[in-house]
Amino acid sequence: MIFPTQIELNDLILKKPSTEFAGQVADLVLRNQEEFKFIPWTRGQTTLPKAEESLKSMAEKWEKLSITYFLFKAERLIGYAGLHVRDAKQVAEISYYLDKDYIGHGYITGVIKKLQQMFFEQGGHRCEIFCNETNKRSCAVAERLNYRLDGTMREYELMDGVYWGVRIYSKLSTDPLAVI
Prior knowledge:
By secondary structure, this protein is of the alpha+beta class. The protein has helices at residues 22-31, 48-61, 107-121, 136-144; strands spanning 6-9, 12-15, 66-73, 76-86, 91-98, 126-132, 148-159, 162-172.
């Protein structure tokens, strides 16, 4: 599968990970700790060295089909979206986060729509979105994009000493309106 290293999408630019914007990643994660509480791996990105390390790792995984983009609006980093391909390039898990100041403008919905379109057009079969069952905003993204709720894995994820349920949403390439 081939994905561009940069995508222009309306007023956003999606860029492949680079250590050049590690400071912006650390700042974004620090400003949004409450909003990102369901994304434990972001906690390690709150300092410049940790953000650089994380971005370097993401860039190295690109070739192994862990396609990640950072979302920029007018040169300001506002979020992240990833497409993590597995199972002989047939299944992809989509992940995302967005700066609290940009929620509600359709940015994540548009980006996810674009990522799933690229995946399906290259022969992918199933896209998945995993959401903490109490993360209403994240669940709403999947539902707005007509992903189907496959079920909830009870007490699936241990975070801060508490087990949380995780909802699994999916969309198949054969679903009506899979690519819009």
